[in-house]
Design a protein that fits this description.
alpha/beta; seven-stranded mixed sheet; 6 helices
């Protein structure tokens, strides 16, 4: 696997989730999410795109963003994710990709491959740069309505023209599903988690 560091939870399950982090790296939010998903019967793999053991703080948002976009890039993250998916296909019955923010955009790119069973993306704002992607698997995209950088409803109208896509827009802000984020909303987290479970349940 290309990723230098990988956060893993392996319990011998038949199905796996590739969890893709935000610009900050593998922080407590990502670890909590991995643990929650593992308790529901999945092996978890989370590559560290940053290539270091530490992570950026939320107060370092601009620094984290610039580092990711200049030193890592979405395209490189996708190539790493694809290589991992290819390897995981040798060991698991079904493989799902779940991503947050920039990780959601990478997950969106993964949806066009033949290596994943389903894709879920939380507030992947940069998906707007990749509207040409045609998903090859069922895809669930969860957005915050209040995004400063783009019009969410316009993106929704563009993406819903494609087959096998479900989009839900929550009345909240970017990061609503992250308990450690200033935009955290408990109600929206619970609602989005319910949608994720329902989405995954359809495959069993």
């Amino acid at each position: 696997m290309i990723a230098k560091y990988m956060y893993k939870i392996k319990n011998g399950n038949q199905n796996a989730i590739l969890l893709l982090h935000e610009i900050y790296g593998i922080n407590q939010h990502i670890k909590d999410t991995a643990n929650d998903l593992a308790r529901n019967g999945y092996d978890l793999y989370c590559p560290n795109f940053l290539g270091v053991t530490n992570y950026f703080k939320y107060s370092e948002e601009e620094k984290a963003y610039n580092y990711f976009m200049k030193e890592i890039t979405i395209e490189s993250g996708f190539e790493q994710a694809k290589e991992i998916l290819i390897e995981l296909n040798n060991h698991y019955k079904q493989i799902f990709v779940i991503g947050y923010s920039v990780g959601a955009t990478i997950a969106w790119l993964c949806s066009a491959t033949k290596y994943c069973t389903g894709v879920i993306g939380f507030y992947g704002s940069r998906i707007r740069d990749y509207c040409f992607i045609e998903p090859n698997c069922p895809t669930l995209l969860l957005f915050a309505k209040n995004e400063e950088s783009f019009n969410v409803e316009k993106l929704q109208n563009e993406l819903e023209k494609k087959p096998d896509i479900k989009i839900e827009i929550f009345e909240g802000e970017h990061g609503f599903a992250d308990r450690y984020c200033r935009n955290y909303n408990e109600d929206l987290l619970n609602r989005s988690q319910k949608m994720v479970k329902q989405f995954l349940k359809q495959f069993f």
